[in-house]
Design a protein that fits this description.
- With 396 residues, this protein is of the alpha/beta class.
- The protein folds into two domains: 12-210 and 328-392, Rossmann fold, CATH 3.40.50; 236-319, 2-Layer Sandwich (formyl-coa transferase, domain 3), CATH 3.30.1540.10.
- Helix content is 37%, strand content 13%.
- The chain has 17 helices and eleven strands.
- Strands 3-2-1-4-5-6 form a six-stranded parallel beta sheet, sandwiched between helices. It has a three-stranded antiparallel beta sheet with strand order 7-8-9, covered by helices on one side.
- A hairpin with a 6-residue loop joins strand 10 and strand 11.
- It is elongated, with a radius of gyration of 26 Å.
Length: 396
Amino acid sequence: MTLPLRPLDGITVLAFEHAVAAPVCTRHLADQGARVIKIERPGVGDFARNYDQRVKGLSSYFVWANRSKESLTLDIKHPRASAILDRLLAKTDVVVQNLAPGAAARLGLSFDALHVRHKGLIVCDISGYGADGPYRDKKAYDLMVQAEAGLLSATGSGDVIARAGFSAADVSAGMYAYSSILSALLLRGRTGMGSHIDVAMFESLTEWMGNPMYYTFDGALPAPRTGGAHPSIAPYGPTRAGDGQSVLLGVQNEREWRNFCATVLCNPTLADDARFVTNTLRSQNRAVLDEKIAEVFSGLTGAELEARLEQANIAQSRVNTAADLWTHPQLLARRRWTEVQTSAGPVPALLPPGTNSAYRARMDAVPALGEHTDALLAELGFASDEIAALHDDAAV
């Protein structure tokens, strides 16, 4: 049976990648059908393979970001590497790299160097701060970029900052690289020419900080750190019922505020209290408002509170843990789970967001280190004795 064509079937991506940002980008390309050939250091591989051992002895980071790829071990600094790279590049549509600043150029893998021979090649460079500027060579681990881009100033509570609970800078850069590559492929379809994409983690995360930035426009004070609560809307954030159950609720407008007072707090006159009649006033008098809400909620169970919120049509959610997502009823009802293979056996995997009615996303195995090396070299035309010699010479 012929499977439906996926958008990136027939596109080959050569990935000089490690850690999170570039692997997230190329995994999403692979989800859409692209063939992703991941170059890894012989004997070591992508160092994200060793971040932890949480998934049947494999790294949670690596399993998440590297399915549907082929692993080719290659010492790209080895004298014999150029012959392999030349053959690979001849059949490549997109190069993605997040090596150390300047490393790709020193290895002859810059867009300028490659474009001379491969006019249709798209080259995407992912770095901490971009290809130029005074911060170009600055080390850019995810948490450092979260700090530099102001995210840590907006998270936490009071005077205590808090790291976002995932690699926000890496993921933002990976997703902008992904969308930029899709755009570049569309452009190449019109012009026949490749292009250079320069994605900076700092700029990607700064874009995501757009609302907090504009909140400080023209010298205005930044929003205070408010933990799980919204800094400029009230009531909006986590609360606790009398039985200890946490519930997060959000009141977005004055109509909802009146419903909340009448149906949830059973105190309709509170809606007209001069301290709370607008969202700005509710935010300014948040501490007093929180006390009044807590007085009512302390006499309710979590189930009773949720029922009142539902009756009032107030937005609400449970405060889940990451572990709760494995059995979340919405994901189960929408059949979002499937399995992918790994060297340690099958593991569950979420289908990528954005279901398309015309095709199913590619959900192939997470590669073992160097799993596809010999097959790829043979495909490139290397004879078995040449492949053996490359192994003996520690080139692959």
